[in-house]
Amino acid sequence: MLKRTLISLFAIFCGIKSEVQAFSKENFLKAIRHVESGDNHSAVGSHGERGAYQFKRVVWKQHAKNSFSNAFEPESAHDVASQHFDWIVNTLSKSGKQTNARNIALAWNAGVGSATRNKISVYNKDYANRVENLLLEFERQEILAKIPQISCL
């Protein structure tokens, strides 16, 4: 665990994108919310996507038993997003793809099938870049918050 933390710290502060999943799921989901909707839980997309994560009905039904209208509720949406994240990671792993932030973001945006077959558009690549950049920033902020402030006498 310490080794992973040190590698993550080095990667974050040097701006290196790691090939292993050395990031928090919570920060990844936060980055997705910011890219998808600006973290707006009442957002409605042009194709009927709902909530901060901009879920499509089919994705919501894949992971939730409650109504699609619950996509606007932060707690329900976060639960479904967490399940969707786990499903993507599991599916990518089974297909032999690395489960790094880039591939997970590509699968989130373009679909797992497109991500595993490398059928990725420029738009999907831009989306993944934005998620990765926000994720790195959120991870950096989290680490800095844990470092005690040093005061000079």
Question: How does the SSE layout of this entry go?
Answer:
Blueprint: H1 2-14, H2 25-37, H3 57-63, H4 74-94, H5 101-110, H6 112-116, H7 122-146
Helix pairs in contact: 2-7, 4-5, 5-7
Report how far the terminal alpha carbons are from each other. Answer: 35 Å
Low-pLDDT stretches are none
Could you tell me the strand content as a percent range?
under 5%
Give the tally of β-strands. 0
Shape: globular
Structural class, by secondary structure, is mainly alpha
Helix content: 55-70%
Give your account of this protein's structure:
The chain has 153 residues and is mainly alpha-helical. Helix content is 61%, strand content 0%. It has helices at residues 2-14, 25-37, 57-63, 74-94, 101-110, 112-116, 122-146. It is globular and about 50 Å long. The termini are far apart.
Short description:
The chain has 153 residues and is mainly α. Helices cover 61% and strands 0% of the residues.
Search tags:
mainly alpha; 153 residues; 61% helix; 7 helices
